[in-house]
Amino acid sequence: MPSPFRIAILASGRGSNVAALLAARERGELPVEFVLVASDKPAAGALQLAQLAGVPTVVLDPRDYAERRDYDFALFERIAASKPDLLVLAGFMRIIDGDALQPWAGRMINIHPSLLPKYRGLHTHRRALKAGDAEHGASVHYVTAELDGGPVIAQAPLSIEAGDDENTLAARLLPLEHQLLPAVVALIAAGRLALDENGVSLDGERLRHPLRWQHGNLLC
Predict the structure, then answer these.
(1) First-to-last CA distance in the chain?
(2) Do 199 and 193 touch, CB atoms closer than 8 A?
(3) Full-model pTM
(4) pLDDT bracket for residue 3 (50, 70, 90)
(5) Ligand-binding site membership of 9 (annotated)
(6) What does pLDDT average to over the chain?
(7) How many domains, in total, are found in the chain?
(8) Which end of the chain is less congested by CB atoms within 10 angstroms, N or C?
(9) Residue 93 annotated as lining a ligand binding site
(10) What's the pLDDT band for 112 if we cut at 50, 70, 90?
(11) Sign of the CA dihedral 205, 211, 214, 217?
């Protein structure tokens, strides 16, 4: 029997997307092994969720390192020791040194609360509302040295309603994130989704557009 697909996670906050991944595994929708949850925040809720689920954790405090680059290499050395097949950024709130990222090309994904390439970086809900957008959403993309600029794999769109503010928009989007991320991870774990020099491919066919989450499924 082949070994389970191994996943490490990086998270800075309460860990709602970590919880969604763990729950998908418990439901039998994600036949993977979570080998590590790592964080830059000792009090991150994601660490507590992992510990309750029996997943190893590690926390490195950036304040213990003189340079950002030194921190990033130390963190990724710890992650590499867990031998993951895929590294998932689930609310990790740090910009990572490009040289530290390089060995993970094609093996590292991130979930971001906007329809990329719109609104890279922070305050995405505020910026979508200020622009008067009719639609917002979440994206899962491969990580590169360009902030939120790697190839987009899949997106979950969400209509902006009259009266929405940052809080209501974020609250309505979060459940879509919790569906989108496990669905993408499942495709990667099954060997169906990959990144190469030609871009993102699904079942060997290059995706001309990101997959779209609709009606509980990822659609081309």
Answers:
(1) 31
(2) no
(3) 0.96
(4) confident
(5) no
(6) 96
(7) 1
(8) N
(9) yes
(10) very high
(11) positive
- 46: which residues sit within 8 A by CB, 6+ positions away? 9, 11, 12, 13, 14, 15, 18, 37, 39, 90, 91
Domain that holds residue 196: 5-219
95 is in an annotated binding site: yes
Q: Provide the annotated active-site residues.
A: 112
At 1, the pLDDT band (50, 70, 90 cuts) reads: low
DSSP string, the chain: -PPPEEEEEE--SS-HHHHHHHHHHHTTS--EEEEEEEES-TT-HHHHHHHHTT--EEE--GGG-SSHHHHHHHHHHHHHHT--SEEEESS--SPPPHHHHGGGTTSEEEEESS-TTSS-SS-HHHHHHHTT-SEEEEEEEE--SSTT-SPEEEEEEEEPPTT--HHHHHHHHHHHHHHHHHHHHHHHHTT-EEEETTEEEETTEE-SS-EEEETTEEE-
C-alpha 143/C-alpha 204 separation (Å) is: 20
Unique residue bearing structure tokens 């309603």: 161
Residue 114 reports pLDDT greater than 70: yes
Q: What are the C-alpha distances in Å from 10 to residues 40, 194, 215?
A: 8, 20, 28
Q: From residue 100, how far is each of 53, 76, 165, 190 by CA, in Å? A: 28, 7, 37, 26
Do the annotations mark residue 17 as ligand-binding? yes
Which residue carries 């867990």 as its tokens?
82
Of 19, 64, 71, which is closest to residue 45 (Cα–Cα)? 19
Q: How far apart are CA 56 and CA 54, in angstroms?
A: 6
Instruction: Supply the CATH number for residue 108's domain.
Output: 3.40.50.170
